[in-house]
Amino acid sequence: MTQQTATQEQKYVEAWNDSIAGNASSVPDNIHALRESAIATFGEIGFPTTRRGNEDWKYTDIRSIANAAYASLAPDPANRVATADLDQHIMGGEVWNRLVFVDGHWLPGLSSLPSLPPEVTAMSLANAMSSHPQLVATDLAQHARFQDNGFTALNTAFLQDGALLTIPDGIEVEEPIHLIFLSSGLEQGSVSHPRTLVTLGANAKATVIESYGGLVDAPYLANSVSEFVLGPGAHLETFHLQQHSPQGNHIGSTQVKLAKDSSFTAGAFDFGGNISRNSLNVTLEGVGSSCNLYGLYMTNNSQHVDNQVLVDHAAPHTTSRQVYKGVLDGYSRGVFHGNITVRKEAQKTDALQMDKNLLLSDNAEADTKPALWIYADDVKCGHGATCGKLDDTAMFYLRSRGLNEESARRMLIHAFANEVLDNVGLTPLRVHLEQVVSSSLRFEGQVEGNRA
């Protein structure tokens, strides 16, 4: 821990001592021991920095988050949030299953599970710690390492509530399960630590949507950790939707473990927030496992979005695909670090990675770093990255067909984004995303003097 940040990190340790240390009886002994270990780790390693040698954080400076000291846990907002506050975040009508969390607290009155099979366990993690301790103990914090990540250590240290989903062998959940994590902003400078644990048994199938957003435009921090564990032949499709308020900050980490012949599909969409950092780590541990990862980020003004995508091919005959796209305007910045590792024993690996960025402003910046680490000799792997402006020839063609400049720009940007949006098969979610994209385009290039 450096001298410069020691006092800031000490505020989090003090907050832990005030709010967590004395509540050991509220959780099982093993959970509190886990929290004690995590806060001790955070005290040792502190926040990540951009100093030389720390490549994972080279392009994302979180000093504004550390110095703001979002150390005070937001109180339970049970009586301060109404159904109307959720309108812009709810999709799927009365059919989708929904668990709602505000400031890290589960709100049962705003949650509903109308189409969940009786064999499936979907509940508050706080309740599960007492009623289903074995389900929690088996996988919680077993995949999201906090020993070398200060933010994951903080999330684990302040572990109190979150979402637990357990789908047994052979069960298919037909309707999506929508996990909504919101920050109320009712307490100035507050922090929440959302936690998600999802496990699928052999040949189980489900769709999970994680939505993150803010109810008001106020400074706050959402520091989330998700763990997804798939059994043999299981299939999980997930969506990560980030629509925080302009002053909100989001640090997220997702860890995925795939068994034999299982498949994982993940769509990530970043539209809001001030600083947003998403780490997605997928380990293909079983022979024949596969993942398909795609994402779209749209930024304006001084927004900063950082996607770290790491895929570890640890077994033979595994397949992975990554396609991420960014649309950047104003003074915003997009970061993409895609890392594919192919271990020596992972022969017959098939992996492809691509990141494409569309810069709408001379002041926008895209930092992209695709990487391949191949230790096997019988593989098919490729990667690439592009950054550029709107194509002048395409613009000329559309203008020659009668479109004005703004309409032509919007059409080309939509076409660029649609390669990602076309992966979304859920109609309510697809409609929502298209509306957000259209709304975002109204502001493209509005920072004076910045239009490319």
Q: What would you say this structure looks like, in words?
A:
The chain has 452 residues and is of the alpha/beta class. It has 2 domains: 1-284, no CATH class; 287-452, no CATH class. It is 23% helix and 36% strand. It is built from 9 helices and 20 strands. It has helices at residues 3-19, 29-45, 63-68, 125-131, 133-139, 150-157, 392-400, 405-421, 427-441, and strands at 97-102, 105-106, 121-124, 163-167, 177-183, 190-192, 195-200, 205-214, 220-230, 235-243, 248-258, 263-270, 275-284, 290-299, 304-313, 319-328, 333-342, 350-359, 365-374, 380-388. The strands form 2 sheets. The protein has a 10-stranded mixed sheet, with helices on one face. Strands 3, 4, 6, 7, 9, 11, 13, 15, 17 and 19 form a 10-stranded mixed sheet that branches. A hairpin with a 2-residue loop joins strand 1 (97-102) and strand 2. Helix 2 packs antiparallel against helix 6 and helix 8 packs antiparallel against helix 9. The longest helix is centred in the first third of the chain and has 17 residues, at 3-19. The two termini are 42 Å apart.
